[in-house]
């Protein structure tokens, strides 16, 4: 005999109804999704779709922009249909790493971790296309420093975005307080120079962050390069006068700066919890007095900061010398998967992005007549409209050669001339083109990374007393294998310098 | 078999009045401590952004602002679409997972299943080792061809060994062998026994694992990151992660590029982050009472005791 | 499903006659095979096939034409090179101490509090209040550690935090919380337990609710008081579930709640020695290099330790209480 379970039977029936309803909804959703995807694909059956993965959010006017971009590309390459796939910032690294490791056959993707991936052979070799093939013109339009920076054993595996080929660290000052306290910033050429200004502002404005820094801040007023990445305290001198590979914190200049920062910390001139802080001090708010920014030729002085802060006339003082560096060469790269089935077509797309102003500017500025209008078509001067707002344009620094970008009409010819001369005058960093193979000391690097995470932030934010802390860190770095790593990189660097001569 | 008068659960299980009051106060205090963070989040989502930088996180802000919600309004249609996707994968996924886990567990809980030990260990091993993200990605995209398909959000979580072990214990403790034996003597087949005797007795267990599974599906965004590009199929949690990351990047890169627009730096990032938590949490948290109904159901099993 | 029907069909008549052949056993158990079929299929597709890629831990991974599998095959064997970084670390013992120490503490406290809450909730008189309590207690579970880290910061911020304001108001010396490790083990443990109570107690609560009321009935007739009821009815009934949880948690003792240990202390360098667990250590070591070989090796270490502990725990349980053992 079965126990009577009427109530439960009823429940089961209800569950079944829920399940059926859910299945039906799902079928509808799936159908809707299929329907829409087949619609977008139907018109291009005779075309080769090139998939391009990049970090960011899909433009709100994506369909219109891509229609116009594809029309332009197809004038030259009628068979190509470009499709951009956006992965959110922050998640991009993870998805990209899975795609690369799994040998996914994407056509184009915004590159992360170029040296390691390229050395392990994750990307298609572009050298032939660049030097003698479809992308020759694009290749020649890019500053040669980039190509030097990307070449691994005479081969090039990625296409760089020609933009800020050099960058300087700069201190940026909030104009509100400069005006209010009538400050003179023209003498500031190092951290220490800013001490009296900070003291003055902090005395009258206790709730304002003097030097607005957080846990990712790195002290640097010299032109240094990091052979591995700046997550390891291993540096060489950009000027090339010193050819030794150093522990960043053993340099007297670094220690001097850290002393300054520690003084500031003790006096309360920087946020007390800087070593752990993730606070973003919005540019346009008066919650900060001084901050550190990087600035390059394409920023036209403080114009970029001014635009970003809704017109605040933020003053900047560069504190490092300009070098065309390895780090800048790797800022924004596009790579082709080794297993892509459309390598040549992908190269053709890259070539268009970097040589065809109409393609690039539509992506970067939006649609002509909607987001912007020409004020001087011949010189490529434009004025943006009120419809030029986030969601309707893309970052110029990651899309294509910035020298064919239209410029806003507020940028004067003199500024453009200055931009070009500054690029011409900037020297190449001594380390440009040095991409060490880290595989023989990756065990030590991972341990160094852990030790550094225990000391880096408290040193750089001035939280810790530098000299004793560095001593303690160095002892731990030694056990982690720092000496072996420094020696190995030194050997590779010496060989690199010798080959360059 | 003797027939028993149904006794309501309240009569027999509850504390005496004094103890009841004491534990009520105790639980109420604890429950409040659990709700405070949520109120705190709602308040931050309504605080003026520059106040957060100047005064830190406060339980009562100096200046109120709805800027976060206004910023999120532009994603309105997408949020609704994603809510439906989330509900769909949660409901379908939970049904599948619960069904598959409950049946698997039942088989390995039965002593007369000759291969029960093999299938127990077969499942158990998968709890200890991790298959890794890359090979799983290959299976889903190339093996099953599920790129940009809603099933890519459902199938990878459609079975749970943790659930299996919980259910196995429920069957072992709450479904006496003798009931099954007597039903079998009455001529009921295994399927019938499972459906009409075992499942009803294991309702609290089924409610438990389906709640756990539903929470898992609702909170998952990793699968969406790996497999979904089509905006129509993006679930709510991933949409919110995406909005947040893009917003952070937009603000951090504000000074980096000459062409970036003015409005970029004005997004109330912290407030919006909190506003998104509110949106993502409320729907699922409020479904709990639905599941709870099935725990509380007082059951009367006529008959045999173990 | 396919397995059971297709493979048995041809031998079916014979099996009827001879119940001692393999096919005969399978036929006898056909319904059970039907029941395990979907799960088995799932485990093969989503676990047993992809898990083979774990051999990458013993390889020096390089890409070659033909995708991941070809790359995996053609990469050179590297023995235990990928494992070295963890054992060579000077922090090895700190990491092991923290991981095992915190997890053992969580294991005991979660165990105790989950059962304690489940028991008192199951005995409450007012159902509507109970619903409200349980729903509230689930809220922390929904909030990610990233969000809770903000909440904790609101209390512990050195200059703007609630706790320091209180300390200052009563004339004490404010504490620089994020640079002072003293309180952190306590803070992390409190938070970890608090966040999990709602979720962890559900399982026990459901188990208690499933107890046949006849047991209480009988106990009341015998004149048992509340405590005796709990001791003699409730606790024995949740023992199997509790044992299961104990075994599984012991198997997971080398895995830690990443967000709690990484995000809540705001990655403060001065707190790393007391908050570094295996998972945060691996993350900090490999986030930059993203080396699939080393990452897989780290996962394998956790798996092997977990396997050994689980076998031990199960062995002990099998000898003490055979019914509750996993296998």
TrEMBL record, chain C:
Domain ABC transmembrane type-1, first and last residues per copy: 96-313
Subcellular location: Cell membrane
Protein's UniProt keywords contain Membrane: yes
Transmembrane region(s): 31-58, 102-124, 136-156, 183-211, 232-254, 292-317
PROSITE patterns noted in UniProt: ABC_TM1
Pfam families on file: BPD_transp_1
Keywords from the UniProt entry: Cell membrane, Membrane, Transmembrane, Transmembrane helix, Transport
The keyword Protein biosynthesis is annotated on this UniProt entry: no
Major site of localization recorded for this protein: membrane
GO terms for cellular component: plasma membrane
Membrane topology reported for the UniProt record: Multi-pass membrane protein
A single BP term in Gene Ontology: transmembrane transport
Similarity section: Belongs to the binding-protein-dependent transport system permease family.
Protein name: Sugar abc transporter, permease protein
Biological source species: Schleiferilactobacillus perolens DSM 12744
């Amino acid at each position: 005999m079965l126990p009577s379970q009427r109530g439960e039977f009823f429940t089961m029936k209800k569950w079944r109804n829920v399940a059926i309803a859910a299945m039906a909804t799902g079928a509808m959703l799936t159908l809707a999704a299929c329907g829409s995807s087949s619609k977008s694909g139907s018109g291009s059956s005779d075309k080769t779709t090139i998939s391009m993965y990049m970090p960011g959010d899909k433009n709100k006017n994506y369909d219109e922009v891509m229609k116009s971009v594809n029309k332009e590309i197809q004038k030259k390459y009628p068979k190509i249909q470009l499709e951009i796939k956006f992965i959110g910032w922050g998640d991009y690294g993870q998805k990209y790493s899975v795609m690369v490791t799994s040998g996914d056959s994407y056509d184009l993707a915004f590159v992360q971790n170029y040296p390691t991936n390229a050395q392990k052979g994750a990307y298609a070799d572009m050298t032939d296309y660049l030097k003698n093939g479809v992308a020759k013109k694009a290749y020649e339009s890019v500053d040669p420093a980039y190509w030097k920076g990307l070449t691994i054993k005479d081969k090039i595996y990625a296409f760089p975005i020609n933009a800020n080929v050099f960058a300087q660290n700069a201190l940026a000052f909030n104009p509100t307080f400069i005006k209010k306290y009538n400050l003179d910033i023209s003498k500031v050429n190092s951290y220490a120079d800013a001490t009296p200004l900070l003291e003055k502002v902090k005395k009258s404005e206790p709730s304002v962050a003097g030097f607005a820094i957080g846990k990712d801040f790195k002290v640097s007023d010299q032109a240094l390069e990091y052979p591995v990445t700046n997550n390891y305290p291993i540096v060489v001198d950009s000027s090339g006068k010193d050819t030794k590979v150093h522990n960043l914190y053993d340099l007297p200049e670094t220690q001097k700066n850290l002393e300054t920062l520690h003084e500031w910390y003790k006096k309360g001139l920087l946020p007390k919890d800087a070593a752990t802080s993730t606070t973003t001090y919005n540019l346009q708010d008066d919650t900060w007095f001084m901050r550190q920014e990087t600035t390059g030729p394409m920023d036209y002085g403080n114009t970029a900061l001014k635009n970003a802060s809704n017109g605040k006339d933020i003053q900047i003082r560069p504190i490092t010398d300009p070098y065309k560096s390895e780090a800048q060469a790797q800022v924004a790269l596009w790579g082709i998967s080794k297993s892509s089935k459309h390598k040549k077509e992908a190269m053709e797309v890259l070539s268009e992005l970097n040589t065809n102003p109409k393609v690039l500017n539509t992506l970067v500025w939006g649609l002509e007549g909607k987001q912007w209008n020409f004020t001087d078509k011949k010189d490529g001067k434009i004025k943006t409209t009120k419809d030029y707002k986030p969601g309707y344009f893309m970052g110029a620094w990651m899309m294509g050669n910035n020298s064919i970008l239209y410029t806003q009409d507020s940028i004067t010819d003199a500024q453009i001339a200055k931009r070009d001369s500054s690029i011409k005058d900037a020297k190449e960093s001594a380390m440009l083109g040095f991409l060490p193979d880290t595989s023989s000391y990756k065990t030590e690097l991972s341990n160094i990374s852990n030790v550094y995470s225990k000391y880096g932030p408290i040193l750089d934010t001035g939280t810790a007393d530098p000299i004793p802390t560095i001593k303690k860190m160095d002892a731990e770095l030694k056990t982690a294998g720092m000496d072996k790593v420094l020696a190995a990189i030194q050997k590779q660097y010496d060989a690199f310098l010798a080959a360059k001569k | 078999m003797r027939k028993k008068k149904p006794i309501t659960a309240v009569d027999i299980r509850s504390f005496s009045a004094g103890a009841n009051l004491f534990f009520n106060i105790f639980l109420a205090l604890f429950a409040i401590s659990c709700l405070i963070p949520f109120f705190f989040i709602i308040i931050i989502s309504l605080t003026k952004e520059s106040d957060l930088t100047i005064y830190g996180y406060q339980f009562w802000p100096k200046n109120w602002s709805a800027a976060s919600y206004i910023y999120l309004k532009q994603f309105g249609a997408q949020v609704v679409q994603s809510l439906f996707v989330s509900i769909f994968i949660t409901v379908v996924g939970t049904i599948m997972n619960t069904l598959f886990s409950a049946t698997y567990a039942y088989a390995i809980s039965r002593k007369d299943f000759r291969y029960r030990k093999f299938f127990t260990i077969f499942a158990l091993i998968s709890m200890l080792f991790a298959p890794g993200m890359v090979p799983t990605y290959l299976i889903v995209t190339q093996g099953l061809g599920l790129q940009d398909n809603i099933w890519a959000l459902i199938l990878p979580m459609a079975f749970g060994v943790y659930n299996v072990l919980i259910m196995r214990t429920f069957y072992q403790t709450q479904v006496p062998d003798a009931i099954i034996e007597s039903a079998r003597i009455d001529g009921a087949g295994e399927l019938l026994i499972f459906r009409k005797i075992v499942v009803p007795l294991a309702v609290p267990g089924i409610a438990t694992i389906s709640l756990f599974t539903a929470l898992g599906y609702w909170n998952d965004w990793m699968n969406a990151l790996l497999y979904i590009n089509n905006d129509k199929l993006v679930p709510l949690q991933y949409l919110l992660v995406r909005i947040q990351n893009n917003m952070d990047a937009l603000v951090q890169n504000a000074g980096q590029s000459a062409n970036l627009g003015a409005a970029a730096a004005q997004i109330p990032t912290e407030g919006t982050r909190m506003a998104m938590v509110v949106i993502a949490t409320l729907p699922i948290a409020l479904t709990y009472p639905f599941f709870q109904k099935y725990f509380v159901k007082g059951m009367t099993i006529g008959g045999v005791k173990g | 499903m396919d397995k059971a029907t297709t493979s048995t069909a041809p031998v079916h008549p014979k099996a009827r006659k001879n119940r001692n052949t393999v096919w005969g056993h399978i036929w006898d158990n056909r319904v059970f095979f039907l029941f395990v079929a979907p799960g088995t299929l799932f485990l093969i597709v989503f676990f047993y096939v992809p898990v083979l890629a774990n051999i990458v831990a013993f390889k020096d991974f390089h890409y070659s034409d033909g995708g991941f599998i070809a790359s995996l095959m053609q990469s050179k064997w590297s023995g235990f090179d990928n494992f070295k970084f963890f054992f060579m670390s000077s922090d090895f013992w700190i990491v092991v101490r923290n991981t095992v120490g915190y997890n053992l503490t969580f294991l005991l406290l979660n165990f105790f509090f989950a059962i304690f809450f489940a028991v008192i909730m199951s005995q409450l008189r007012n159902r509507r209040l109970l619903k409200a309590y349980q729903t509230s207690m689930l809220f922390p579970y929904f909030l990610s550690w990233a969000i809770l880290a903000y909440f904790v910061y609101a209390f512990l911020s050195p200059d703007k935090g609630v706790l320091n304001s209180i300390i200052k108001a009563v004339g004490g010396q404010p504490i620089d919380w994020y640079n002072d490790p003293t309180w952190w083990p306590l803070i992390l443990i409190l938070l970890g337990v608090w966040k999990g109570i709602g979720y962890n107690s559900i399982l026990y609560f459901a188990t208690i609710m499933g107890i046949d009321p006849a047991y209480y009935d009988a106990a009341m007739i015998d004149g048992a008081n509340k405590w005796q009821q709990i001791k003699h009815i409730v606790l024995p009934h949740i023992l199997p579930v509790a044992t299961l949880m104990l075994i599984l948690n012991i198997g997971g003792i080398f895995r830690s709640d990443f967000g709690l240990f990484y995000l809540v202390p705001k990655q403060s360098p001065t707190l790393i020695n007391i908050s570094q667990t295996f998972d945060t250590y691996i993350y900090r070591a490999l986030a930059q290099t993203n080396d699939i070989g080393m990452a897989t090796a780290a996962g394998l270490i956790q798996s092997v330790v977990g396997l050994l502990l689980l076998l031990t725990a199960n062995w002990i349980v099998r000898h003490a209480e055979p019914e509750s053992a996993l296998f």
